[in-house]
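Q: Structure tokens for this one, please.
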Amino acid sequence: MTVAGATTLSNCVTIPASGVKSASLPLESSLLAGYSCADLLTPRTVRQVVRWNTGETSTLVFSQSRELAQGPLTVFTLTGTVESGAFLESMAILTVTYLNADIEKGCDSPGGLIWLSGPATLELIRTVT
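A: Here is the predicted structure, written as tokens:
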């Protein structure tokens, strides 16, 4: 099974000198055969490359966890660090929110979960010493 998608971040707020205003996070990964909706609950490590509007990139390494929010939402929180590139060694937090109904509908369909869409935020936090 292959998972593919993209997240577009706009209206970025950064240090003015950085010139960063937007970013994209293309996603493509191969998963083991037999991956199922139940595996969405399993914490895992995710490596993600961010492409900034400045032409720079950052490679982020995350641990993912799924948290059920009150009401109709599922929130995936990924926490980790910038492993290489721009903003090196910053702490990274990526949050993506989906409707539970979209997950359930996809997981219950004969073809399985084929798409999800929802808002995302990325925070990079750098400690100055």
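A few notes: The longest helix spans residues 100-108. The beta strands are 2-9, 23-30, 44-52, 57-68, 73-85, 91-99, 120-125.
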